[in-house]
Amino acid sequence: MKILSLSAFLLSLKLSLVGVVFSLHISKKAEREINKVFEIDNANFVQTLDQDIPGIDKDRLYTIFDQGNALGFAYVGEASSQTDTFEYLVVFDTNFAVKKAKVLVYREDYGSEIGSKRWLKQFLDKTPNDRFAYRQNIAAISGATISVKSMTNAMNNLMISLASWQNNGKPNKS
Amino acid sequence: MKKLILSAILISTVGFSQNMNFQNSAMRQLSNLENSENRITLGGYGEINFNGYDGKPNEIDVQRLVLLFAYKFDDRTQFVTEVEYEHVKEVYVEQAFVNYNITDNLNARAGLMLVPMGIINEYHEGPTYNGVERPSLDGKVIPTTWREIGFGIAGRSNELSFRYQLYAMNGFVSFNEDYVLRGSDGFRKGRQKGAESVNSDMNFAAKIEYYGLPNIRFGLAAYSGKTQTTDLEDAATQVGLTMLDADYRYAKGRFSSRGQWVKTSLRDVAAYNAAGNKDLGSAMGGYYIEGAYNLLPLTNRQRLDIFVRYEDFDTHKKTDGGMMANPAYHRKETTVGFSYHLAPGVVFKGDYQSKKTAASDDVVGQLNFGVGFFF
Question: Quick check: A90 and A74 in contact, CB under 8 A?
Fold first, then answer.
């Protein structure tokens, strides 16, 4: 009896911990966005990585499932704006081509222009083989330079990390 | 078994909520302190300039040093202030407002705020513009740094790629025991800066900016109202005004460009001028246009922009009451120079300005150097 209740307690603890991890990184807002991208009602998420890889924490990358089928991946990142940080979501298909990039939470006025759908469209269909450079293949937004550079760098680093992970098939120690 | 799990979940939930309740004020204080590094923001910007003149002594000045503080009460509520030292010894509060985030697209704001008019009034940190001195148009027609106390809404739409601001604000003072506005720089002397300001009439300011096209950003601003007076009985101590602005900023590859057009229409100017023996114009306005090219490869961390800017504006575009327009108030200025961005946020600038007016063909030259920073 004691053992049973203890294990039940541990189980519930584990469940609630998993719940916390989900609410931290796959927020309701992110979930809605992912459902919209794949035109489904109830995506499920499973952590893709069992350990951190260079540039990607394991609790930021999720495999998206719908009724047992893997549809793609979701990455929830954080980057700096002028005086704060913002959170963004990148949704990939199963080949890691970008299906959607979205700013989930932006906490200040300065630089909030990077939430623009039109601007974020520049990342669509890009894959880990693509590289992004501010004012070269990524357009500037006057008045939002810091956040635009920050998002561009974040997307670039994400692609580099994904590419090295794909190429090595394992964490890169260097 | 199922029952057991349920009860275990209940127990663990109760345990969790107890933890919350048992947190005393000291513990809360501690957890606040843990978060405090994210709550307080410090920043600043400033300019230290050298102005070399023809035929008069040069000037070296810490033109402005601004310290920015922001405090975040929670994810929705923030206080922002900028304390400015001008010429080392004059202290001003440049901004001091509370921003309350209602939804993703809507904020309510109140306090001392920048008037959204033109480019420079809102984006005036040294590394964000070319030229040691701000464009003269943003001094004589838009009296930067123009800020007043007011309240309103601001926000953006990610779907439509636009940003908006709409404020009810206090306005320029035209009569404060004496007549203060004049023809050479319009409303500049009427700025109250939120310091024991006179308020007799509400003014309105609005700006929308569109950034849905790649590389370019457009702004449209409008300001309308009446000046403030200490003599509520005398209508001749006030003038009405409507200011309109259209501006753009473009940046692609190594090339960048910006331009601005402003027009101010004034009302009841003839009576004001007659009563105060002043020479205020009844319409002011003009434009500037600027192009810049970065000489360094885009992959470099540093940037060396060379630029040229042409300005043409007139604070006596129209006059009223039979007053002759003063041609000396119609200025044409060309500025050629460089902005060497040593690191993002630090710039060393140099330029040469040739200034002339419609009054004569004489060209007055001015050589400027400055350092600017923004963090």
Answer: yes
Nearest to A135 among B4, B78, B252 (CB): B252
pLDDT recorded at residue A82? 84
> Can you tell me the mean pLDDT for B24-33?
49
Does ipTM come in above 0.85? no
Q: Give pLDDT, residue A12.
A: 45
User: Are B164 and B208 in contact, with CB atoms under 8 Å apart?
Assistant: yes
Neighbours of A55 (CB within 10 A): 14
Number of C-beta neighbours around residue B58 at 10 A: 11
Whole-number Cα distances in Å, A146 to A112, A150, B23, B26, B195: 10, 6, 39, 38, 32
CA atoms of B151 and B328, how far apart (whole Å): 38
Give bridge partners of residue B351 from the DSSP assignment: B337, B368
B154–A108 CB contact, under 8 Å: no
CA A59 to chain B, closest CA, distance in angstroms equals: 22
Segment B106-111 shows an average pLDDT of 96
**Is residue B255's pLDDT more than 60?**
yes
Set of chain A residues whose Cβ sits within 8 Å of the Cβ of B69 = none
Nearest to B339 by CA among B51, B118, B131, B159: B131
* Chain B contact probe: residue of A2, A3, A5, A109 with most B CBs at under 10 A: A109
Residues of B within 8 A of A117 (CB-CB) are: 158-159, 161
Instruction: Give residue B365's identity as a one-letter amino acid code.
Output: G
Task: Name every residue whose Cβ is closer than 8 Å to that of residue B51 and which is 6 or more positions away in sequence.
Answer: B58, B59, B60, B61, B132, B133, B366, B367, B368
Q: Which of residues 329-358 of B touch A (CB under 8 A)?
A: 344
* Cα–Cα distance for residue pair B245/B138, rounded to 1 Å: 11
**Mean pLDDT along residues B297-318:** 96
pLDDT at position B166? 98
pLDDT of residue B216: 96
- Closest CA in chain A for residue B120: A143
Q: Which of these, B187, B359, B192, B200, lies nearest to B281 by C-alpha position?
A: B187
Side chain identity at B355, as an amino acid letter? K
Mean pLDDT across B203-208: 98
Express each pLDDT in A64-85 by its tens digit.
999 999 999 999 999 998 878 8
